[in-house]
Amino acid sequence: MKVEKLENSISKEEMEIDNYVPVSISFPENDLEAEGLYYYRFINKEYSFVEFKINSVSKKIVNVTVTSINDIQNSDFIFNGSIPEANPIINIYEFEYGDVITNNRSFEFYIGEKKIFFTSI
Asked: Which strands sit side by side in the sheet containing 107-112, from one edge to the other?
């Protein structure tokens, strides 16, 4: 999944945590309800599963669902970069041939600094 550009606005999130889906984060302001959705799924070799729901017109992330984390790295992970506070606009060119993309490449979860990081390898 590629970010096309960053919009200088921040959407308010709604987080839901329950017993079935560990974490679901919604961005209702990014959802143009009458429009279609694209789904980008990441699944790794340990069957950790993260899904991004993207509005087909606004190109913004509508929802991030962490369905399972089976291999979190609990270490002294220190993030040395910076993360801009912005609303990413997703490049939807990849969805030209279908509404769902499943990416089976490696990714990992790290916990550190009281945060969980999702990294693609």
From this structure: 72-74, 107-112, 115-120
